[in-house]
Q: What sequence folds into this?
């Protein structure tokens, strides 16, 4: 999932999410994406999703986590 690297770069270039305040990482063995927003961590099971579906799910979770802060 090459887009995860680009997404992390996008977060790093944003003044509100830089300094690793928002990161996404993929665990291939578990087929999970780990999303860290400030001190909160969430996981997204991407089994059965195509690249686009997984990306939209991750962006939705990031949005929800940022809105709760």
A:
């Amino acid at each position: 999932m090459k887009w995860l690297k680009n997404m992390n770069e996008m977060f790093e270039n944003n003044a509100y999410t830089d300094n690793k305040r928002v990161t996404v990482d993929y665990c291939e063995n578990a087929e999970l994406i780990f999303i860290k927003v400030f001190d909160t961590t969430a996981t997204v099971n991407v089994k059965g999703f195509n690249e686009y579906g997984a990306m939209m799910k991750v962006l939705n979770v990031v949005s929800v986590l940022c809105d709760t802060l």
User: Anything to note?
Assistant: The longest helix spans residues 51-67. The radius of gyration is 11 Å. The helical segments are 3-12, 51-67. The mean pLDDT is 94.
